[in-house]
Amino acid sequence: MPQIILTISTSGPGLYEFTEDAQRFVRGQKVEEGLLTVFVRHTSCSLIVQENADPDVKRDLNAFFRRLVPPSDSPSMNWVVHRVEGPDDMPAHIKAALTQTSIGIPVFGGRVMLGTWQGIYLFEHRDRPHRREVVLHLS
Q: Is the pTM of this model over 0.90?
């Protein structure tokens, strides 16, 4: 079964698209039909399939998640116990739990079957830069 690990460098919270990397991997396997499994090997970021045409969508998603789960030094988060790695750490774990760490996407005709405006994103939840590993597995 073909598999690769992508390394995605992030510079803080936000959505980092890697749709073309996934498409390139699938094309290189010369598989007509199958399932692409995308898995992120971390607990403080996640994966989403989201619109990739209007940048306002990314801005609004970031703003929504910041409002939904503010940093742990916010008064509304005084119940948080896990604070070892800073005020963005536990909120990042919560955001990852609310989204997903694995996505399955059908492959047909040698292509990932995303809709016209869909893209695959790593959703970084931490404030500082990271190098994230995403596994692409085709079966």
A: yes
Q: Could you read off the pLDDT of 102-138 as tens digits, one per residue?
A: 999 999 999 999 999 999 999 999 999 999 999 999 9
* Helix (H/G/I), strand (E/B), else coil: 56: helix
State the burial class of residue 29 (Cβ atoms within 10 Å of its Cβ: 0-12, 13-18, 19+).
middle
**Domains by residue range for the chain, with CATH:** 3-138 (2.60.120.460)
* Structure-block tokens of residue 129: 């830069």
**9: left (phi > 0), else alpha (psi -120 to 50), else beta?**
beta
In the chain, the N- to C-terminal Cα span, in Å, equals 6
Cα gap 24→48, rounded to integer Å: 19
Please give the C-alpha separations between residue 129 and each of 10, 40, 54, 99, in angstroms, as whole numbers. 5, 16, 24, 20
Query: Are 118 and 51 contacting, i.e. CB atoms less than 8 angstroms apart?
Result: yes
